[in-house]
Amino acid sequence: MQNFILRTIILFTAFIVSLNVVAQKPKVQNDPTHDDKPLHFGFSLGFNAMNFYIVHSEVARNYFIAADVARLQPGFHVHALSNLRLAEYFDLRFLPGISFGGERHIEYVDKTVTDQAYSQTINPDDVPVKIESNFLEFPLLIKYKSKRLNNFRPYLISGINTRVDLAGAKLDWGKKEEDPKKKNIVLLNLLDGYYELGVGMDFYLQYFKFGVELKYAWGFRNILKTENKKGERPYPDIAIYTDVIEKMKSRMFLITFHFE
User: Fold this and answer.
1) pLDDT tens digits for 225-234?
2) Structural domain count, the chain
């Protein structure tokens, strides 16, 4: 999926460059001065799929345990939108909002046994480990637009995003059966930072501009929590699920619809 997204972005970049080279003067029909406004506002709705990039630790290699994301449950997001015109082809965009409902299932496999029920390390009742995240997020992005052609305009977008995980704020280590709303055997740090890169297309309608955007985001922080606020580590029965992971970084694919 990641390679497909990156190839799509590269091809779309080449497409935009070619448009700027060969495009004829467009015959604008709808809202011809929309992009001339120094500042305009709107809102965004969309869907996302969250993932993890997992690096195994020395413990995983010693115990022959593998951890990987086995299943993704899509979420959705809602943003306010502020767009500042920087130049003819460049905008600065700030889209504070909330993203929720996304869930990732981490599967742990003991490679020393063929039937996981006989593992001495991994309890089959504990896996897969379900991790849900609800984010407050604050993307700050640069948008590069091609020349407008009639009533559409392709663009590239990139920047950074800060996300705060609300779902993990009240969680502590423990098994779900103890208290599903307050316990989990794998915990995440609440604050994460992302690089974002995407492509999109704006469509100029009679009364507003509608945009469709595909974007890929990759976190640059290790978000695996190894200690809580009190400096406590997970208790021994579940420590293995954290200890087999050296680094865990976020990945996210987003489809967004803008109304401006």
Assistant:
1) 998 777 888 8
2) 1
